[in-house]
Amino acid sequence: MERVKIVGVPEHFNLPWHFAIEEGAFEARDIELIWEDIPQGTGRMCQMLQDKEADLAIVLTEGICKAIHDGVPAKIIQKYIGSPLLWGIHVGHNSPYQSMEDLKGTKAAISRYGSGSHLMAYVHAKQLDWNTEQLSFELIGTLQGAVDALTKGKADYFMWEHFTTKPLVNQKIFRRIEDCTTPWPCFVITASQDFIDKKEGLIPHILEVINTYTAEFRQIPSIDRTFSNRYDLAIEDIHKWLGITDWSQSQLESQVVDTIIDTLSDLKLISDKIDNYSPLWQPSD
């Protein structure tokens, strides 16, 4: 049996993977798929791909495009979530800030440099016509780190997926100022180059299994209650999230990659664009 290490955030998006593992769908293909939750997010997972600590990762699209551009040896093998991500912009519940205009010039909490919380702070600031060179950051590692930073005043605001942070809003730990969405599909499946070089033949089998699960996922009886119970989310929030979320079974389009790289370049988050930059996996003949 071939052992494969896959990493992803401990969030509701990844439930299809857990179902497939628990039901033995990968074992039926003679694959032992080992899942590890990475609460630090995309920046940490990109580092794990580089360090050969993971074979596959479910990462934010903009984060992995930047990482591969910066030299991480990996390829995007497929889209996972084809719809945009809904980012909530949060402050501490007792914070004096009431609007995005109030937050101009303040400090953002980010999990890591190169993470989604870092990159999207730039993207959203650009949308608001802020001077992105004046952005400042507090490294917090995990969601709990963000709770500590906002509660203690070490940072002023924090961007994270809307529904993951909803319980913290309900508990009056965070207060949401507003939402923003990514201008591209949000999550992709990525493989390290080392894994591609050594075990590329496993990739079609892994994709076929997960694509079967995601294509049929919405039809599972009482799937809303399953999400609610496993991720401590209200049923009405699960319904809203399912209404805006689409799992994908196709490769990321090259024009989406171009848009992301152009955006990162405009924001001076990457060095000069690379000729023939291609982060997309092309199966060997």
Describe the structure.
The chain is built from twelve helices and ten strands. The protein has about 280 residues and is an alpha/beta fold. It has two domains: about 170 residues, D-Maltodextrin-Binding Protein, domain 2, CATH 3.40.190; about 100 residues, Periplasmic binding protein-like II (D-Maltodextrin-Binding Protein, domain 2, 3-Layer(aba) Sandwich). Strands 2-1-3-10-4 form a five-stranded mixed beta sheet, with helices on both faces. Strands 7-6-8-5-9 form a five-stranded mixed beta sheet.
Topology:
Blueprint lengths: L1 E7 L6 H8 L8 E7 L4 H9 L5 E5 H9 L4 E8 L4 E7 L7 H4 L3 E4 L5 H12 L8 E4 L3 H10 L4 E5 L4 H5 L3 E8 L5 E6 H7 L3 H14 L6 H9 L3 H10 L9 H13 L19
Parallel strand pairs: 1-2, 1-3, 6-7, 6-8
Antiparallel strand pairs: 3-10, 4-10, 5-8, 5-9
Helix pairs in contact: 1-9, 3-12
Give a short summary of the structure.
With 285 residues, this protein is an alpha/beta fold. The protein has 2 domains: 2-84 and 184-266, D-Maltodextrin-Binding Protein, domain 2; 86-181, D-Maltodextrin-Binding Protein, domain 2 (3-Layer(aba) Sandwich), CATH 3.40.190. The protein contains 12 helices and 10 strands.
